[in-house]
């Protein structure tokens, strides 16, 4: 993915636009009584819309947006994009059981309503068809965060750029967390926002790796969709008791993704390839 000359004025304008669009959608539709999931899905397109507006207003074009397919020889990153969320979330679930933080029993409603084969069939559909459909809304975010903001922050270095984007991305979720108690429930707004910032930052680093290695946003779009679907499925099927430490959005999950990030950094994989066009 190409580095773009830093323009702090343009970067600031993009961030303000992304927040303004999404927060207007989330808060405005909430006032009109629109359901949480509909609002959350529509709000995901704010970063993409902001990037289109800023690009058109500044006559920047879309050459550096990462919309093209991955460069030759990097298509295997689609497999990594799909596997990393599964691996990190599975590791976190195992650790939460080992440390006695979580008992992964099916929720009563799921256990009563689904036979084993029906559950397996539904799970297979969720992890294939639903992930594919969720890529549409994930694209709404990735065209902005990784398609617009990342190339402009890359001159700071991939790690620093990833951390900045992760912090911005986490705070961007604030209306859902503060107003709707998304993730950690009402009464836990501060810890919920802090955890989303930590999660987003841990995700941002490996998503940056996918983008700079493939020179495309599409592996990141797939991985973002997989993250959302797998996390939501765990909450739908199971009934996590310890949300802060042992849940799919808890501290152990953050640590597992940070372990992936640390490996990418230690092995030099997070560096921008020398043959980057």
How would you describe what is shown here?
This protein is an all-alpha fold. The chain has one domain. It is 70% helix and 0% strand. The radius of gyration is 19 Å and the shape is globular. The model has no long low-confidence stretch (mean pLDDT 90).
Summary of the model, kept short:
This protein has 277 residues and is mainly α. The protein has helices at residues 8-31, 36-43, 46-57, 77-98, 108-113, 116-153, 158-172, 174-180, 189-214, 218-237, 251-266.
What's the arrangement of secondary structure elements?
Elements: H1 8-31, H2 36-43, H3 46-57, H4 77-98, H5 108-113, H6 116-153, H7 158-172, H8 174-180, H9 189-214, H10 218-237, H11 251-266
The N- to C-terminal Cα distance equals: 7 Å
Largest sheet composition: none
- Mean pLDDT reading: 90
* Portion in helices: over 70%
What's the count of strands?
Answer: 0
Q: Segments where pLDDT lies below 50 for 5+ residues?
A: none
Descriptive key words:
single chain, 277 residues, mainly alpha, globular
């Amino acid at each position: 993915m190409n580095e773009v000359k830093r323009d702090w004025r343009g970067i600031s304008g993009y961030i303000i636009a992304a927040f303004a669009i999404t927060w207007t959608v989330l808060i405005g539709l909430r006032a009109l009584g629109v359901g949480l999931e509909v609002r959350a899905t529509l709000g995901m397109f704010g970063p993409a819309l902001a990037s289109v507006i800023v690009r058109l207003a500044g006559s920047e074009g879309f050459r550096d947006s990462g919309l093209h397919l991955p460069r030759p020889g990097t298509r295997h990153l689609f497999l990594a994009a799909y596997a990393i969320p599964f691996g990190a979330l599975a590791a976190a679930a195992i650790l939460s059981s080992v440390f006695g933080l979580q008992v992964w029993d099916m929720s009563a409603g799921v256990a009563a309503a689904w036979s084993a084969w029906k559950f397996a069939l539904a799970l297979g559909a969720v992890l294939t068809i639903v992930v594919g459909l969720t890529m549409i809304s994930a694209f709404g975010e990735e065209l902005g965060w990784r398609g617009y903001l990342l190339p402009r922050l890359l001159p700071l270095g991939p790690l620093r750029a990833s951390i900045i984007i992760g912090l911005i991305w986490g705070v961007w979720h604030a209306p859902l967390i503060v107003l709707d108690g998304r993730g950690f429930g009402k009464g836990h707004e501060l810890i919920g926002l802090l955890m989303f910032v930590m999660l987003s930052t841990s995700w941002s680093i490996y998503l940056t790796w996918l983008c700079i290695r493939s020179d495309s946003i599409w592996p990141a779009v797939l991985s973002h969709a997989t993250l959302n679907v797998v996390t939501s499925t765990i909450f739908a099927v199971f009934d996590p008791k310890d949300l802060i430490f042992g849940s799919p959005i808890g501290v152990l999950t953050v640590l597992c993704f940070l372990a992936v990030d640390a490996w990418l950094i230690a092995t030099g994989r997070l560096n921008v390839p020398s043959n980057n066009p």
